[in-house]
Amino acid sequence: MNTIDAKTYRDGMSLLPAAVTVVTTDGEAGKGGMTVSAITSVTDTPATLLICINQNSKMNEMLKTNARFVVNILQASNEEISNRMAGFDGSEPSERFDLGEWKEGTLKQPILKNASAAFECEIVKTDEVGTHSVIYGEVKELHTFEKEESPLMYFNRSYQQFRVDETVTP
């Protein structure tokens, strides 16, 4: 059986459209944030999602120590916040909150005020797979914000906008 090399795999995965999110945390290990597109729902009972974080990132240990986080789903107008939280400018995770308006959620975690939605989570499990930590978060609070803006998407290594139609035909 052939093994796919890392570059070929990444090239293929770049063709999978993904919602752009910012994962934030605050607690004993400090406050931090990063851009994450590797997120998925696991189950609705209990409501649980997972995020994948590179084991070498500073946020990896910060998340595990704080044991709580928020997944903020970004809107198309949040591209600058996404870039800042991705650390393209060399900033530390704790220095990335100067863009956007933030509030403290029920679990004392940073929530972006103009996100489409924010999922406040407590970590219930972690797995180490290859270069990444798979972090499972049970959703304790869900904040949705009425916005008419399209979500920020990532596809083929660039930001994209997903057009939202008013009419849905079955």
UniProtKB/TrEMBL annotation:
InterPro entries: Flavin_Rdtase-like_dom, NADH-dep_flavin_reductase, Split_barrel_FMN-bd. Residues 13-161 form the Flavin reductase like domain. One of its GO terms (molecular function) is monooxygenase activity. One of its GO terms (biological process) is pyrimidine nucleobase catabolic process. Keywords: Monooxygenase, Oxidoreductase. Pfam families: Flavin_Reduct (PF01613). PANTHER family: FLAVIN REDUCTASE, FMN REDUCTASE (NADH) RUTF. This is 4-hydroxyphenylacetate 3-monooxygenase reductase component.
